[in-house]
Write a structure and sequence with these properties.
Helices cover about 40% and strands about 15% of the residues. The protein is α/β, with parallel strands linked by helices and about 375 residues long. The longest helix is centred in the first third of the chain and has 19 residues. It starts with 5 loop residues before the first strand and ends with a helix. About 45% of the residues are buried.
Length: about 375
């Protein structure tokens, strides 16, 4: 790759949840580790990307506003290709599984984390019609762009293997590895308990920090506490939803209220990231009933805070957590109940999982700077 190289970075759809985190952390790492390159940044407007990109001396920055689905198609097919061809990059880096180009003017790499492209419909959860249309489009676009892609970065070997098996991808896959920001590694052990935990001191407190997506499987909470109210009377699950996140989010919150389950399912609404450490440090376990993930930074955040993990017995979770979690069948409320009760009654197991998680953090988690360096080094191998 020429020095300095011309690198087009496509990230304008990374606006929420894990995608937003991956986008900002990776761009932050790239612009600090290798600021000498010439960059084209296509980024979301007003979400903190601008200040990261502006630290690069030679950067062409296009901050794009949020658009509806029809305009998203226009961006993918018309605006993005035009901007990139005008920039004439040596290599393209798409920080989203469905943002790559179908006919790129140079070699192309993709950061893959859209796990819904690798799992059957039984793992999608209760989707709306809009969700189904969007998924169909993204899968079709991804299938085409993958044929024009030389390199795919995956967060785990599980995702890399699924990508090769399902799509027959013959290019190079690189496991970039999980990471967590320094601020989450350094949460004080005496971080005070959030006010929301008041009154729950003698209950098992399960923390479920997730924006609403159908595959997060949060509806199982309704079945869980409706069927097993007596057995789970001393269990509190703290969720982080707002009705605006998805049409189903409002329905779920209304159902919790209608069934008078607020004593067991406590909605914290949105939690600013700088405040989340207190929840990780003072909960009894992370609760993740998700049906699919590419990795989930939430897992490593919990490990960093010494928080035990209760999660789905599926390949993505076992690939991310290994022996540092207790697993349940996410399709069975009874299985979830049994694992929660067994965990809650076994103090030694709780301590063991916390220690195993902290040990895994020390040995297996890399910094975002290391990941950024790895990404740039791999891009140099495929650039024209």
């Amino acid at each position: 790759m020429p020095n300095p190289a011309k690198i087009a970075v496509i990230a304008h759809a990374l606006r929420s949840a894990g995608g937003l985190s991956v986008g900002r952390y990776l761009i932050d790492g790239i612009t600090r580790v290798v600021p000498e390159n010439n960059y084209l940044f296509l980024i979301p407007e007003g979400l903190g990307y601008e200040e990261l990109c502006e630290r690069v001396p030679n950067a062409e920055i296009h901050a794009l506003p949020a658009v509806n689905f029809a305009k998203r198609i226009w961006q993918d097919r018309v605006r993005t290709p035009k901007l990139i061809k005008s920039f004439a990059p040596d290599v393209i880096l798409a920080l989203d599984s469905s943002l790559g180009m179908v006919k790129p003017p140079s070699p192309q790499a993709i950061v893959f984390y859209a796990a819904q492209l690798l799992y059957p419909e039984s793992h999608f959860g209760p989707r709306t019609f809009k969700d189904k249309v969007r998924h169909k489009y993204l899968k079709r676009h991804f299938t085409k762009e993958l044929k024009a892609t030389q390199l795919v970065f995956c967060q785990t070997a599980v995702m890399a293997n699924r990508l090769r098996e399902i799509y027959g991808f013959q290019g190079k896959t690189v496991v970039a590895g999980p990471s967590v920001p320094d601020s989450m590694r350094q949460i004080p052990t005496d971080e005070p308990a959030p006010a929301a935990f008041n009154g729950h001191e003698n209950r098992l407190k399960l923390f479920c920090p997730a924006r609403y997506y159908p595959h997060k499987n949060l509806e199982i909470l309704i079945e869980l506490f409706s069927k097993f109210a007596d057995e789970l009377k001393n269990v509190s699950v703290f969720i982080t939803l707002t009705a605006e996140q998805h049409p189903n989010a409002g329905k779920l919150l209304s159902e919790i209220s209608r069934l008078n389950l607020e004593n067991n399912i406590i909605n914290l609404s949105h939690i600013p990231y700088e405040q989340i450490g207190g929840y990780y440090r003072n909960a009894d376990a992370l609760f993740m009933p998700s049906l699919l993930e590419s990795f989930s930074t939430t897992y490593v955040e919990a490990m960093a805070a010494g928080l035990p993990i209760l999660t789905s017995d599926l390949d993505f979770a076992r690939g991310a957590c290994g022996e540092v979690a207790d697993y349940f069948d996410p399709f069975s409320a009874e299985s979830v109940k049994d694992v929660i009760l067994a965990f809650g009654s076994d103090k030694s197991r709780q301590q063991e999982l916390a220690q195993l998680g902290e040990k895994m953090m020390q040995n297996d988690v890399t910094s975002w700077d290391e990941i950024a360096t790895r990404v740039i080094n791999e891009l140099s191998k495929i650039s024209r």
